[in-house]
Amino acid sequence: MKEYHHLLPLATGYFGVSSALYDFDGLVVIYGPAGGAWHINIEDEPRWYRGPATVVGAGLLEMDVILGNDAKFIDNIVQTAKGLERRFVALSGTPISEIIGTDLKGFARTIEARTNMPVFMVPTAGSEPYAEGASKALLALADKFMDPDAPKVANGINVLGAIHLSTGKEVHIEPLLGALRTGGFEPVAVFSASRPGQADPLSGVRRAPGAAVNAVVSTSGLALARRMFADYGIPYAVGMPVGRAGREAFLALLRGEASASDRPVPAPDRPAPHRHALVVGEPVLGHGLRHCLRHDFGVDRVDVVSVSPGDALFRQGEGCLGVLAAREAGDLDTDEEGRIAELMNDPDVDLIVADPCYRALLRGRAAFVPLPHIAMSARIHWDMAYEYAVDAGYDYLAGHLLHA
Question: To which H or E segment does residue 351 belong?
Answer without folding.
Answer: strand 351-354
